[in-house]
Amino acid sequence: MGINKTMAGAPSNKDPKLSLLKEKGLIKRFTDHYSESRGRLIIYISASLMIIAVVAITLFLTVQGLRSFVIDRLNVWSFVTGTEWYPDRENNPSFGAFPFIFGSIAVTLLSAVIAAPVAVGCAIFMTELTKKWGQRVLQPVIEILVGIPSVVYGLIGLSVIVPFIKQYFGGSGFSLLAGSLVVGIMILPTVASIAADSIRSVPDTLREASYAIGATKWQTIWRVVIPAAGSSLITAIVLGMSRAFGEALAVQMVVGNARGLPTSIFDPAATLTTIITLSMGNSTYGSVLNDALWSLGLILLMISYIFIVIIRFLSKRRKA
User: Fold this and answer.
1) Where are the domains of the chain?
2) Are residues 283 and 293 in contact, defined by beta-carbon separation less than 8 angstroms?
3) CATH annotation of 98-278
4) pLDDT digits (tens, 9 = 90+) for 15-59
């Protein structure tokens, strides 16, 4: 009995599929050493360009943002903690960025408080209560919400939320609450999508063990599934907060863009992004105002990096 030269499972030379691949030259292309080298080079170049872009943006914004402190001699502490922003005042102009920093953080936190319970509830509905038709209904809705431009959210907030707040809570309607509601709706699909993936990743053995000791479905969800996916759910919320922190247009349309420090959620306010977009076009390059706006951008970048560090920390805890 002779030894078969064709190994088991390997295609023979008479295989019509193999012949077709040879005719089209695909076998040669797959086994070409130079093609592999070119592909690896393209991948390395792509990764290098990404790293270079991040480093270049960070360095450029750092250099521009430090101009107001190095060249214009603005005090760093007074700039960060000052509450008066009057750069156009002829005598003794002031550059206090704290109201904008506070406004950005307040809008971010309030939007997370508004969006997180609804988003986690939607995720539980899709993954635990109605796994089949619930996902078929909610998933397209979430995708639609993601695709809506931010200016549309701003217009809805301007025509619905602002008049509602003005009628029932007084004031002009332009407020921290209006900005938080608009941004909370904007980040809702992001948080819901990531939260749903986090809950799906919980092993079914945990659910089965909970049912085996007599727990109800709600007790299993509340005491087993949510704690097991806890770090992932927090990561989803932090990702939503990072998007909320950088939002500009929709917030600008409803928050009021006031220079002062708000005393309640019904007062108008401003954020780092709104004051930059409103003032950058009216400033000349190299002026003190222009340099101060770049400093606001640097603060915005630093806080965004803090969000990234938090996300990385939570991801490591989840893997551990």
Assistant:
1) 98-278
2) yes
3) 1.10.3720.10
4) 565 565 455 454 455 555 666 788 888 999 999 999 999 999 999
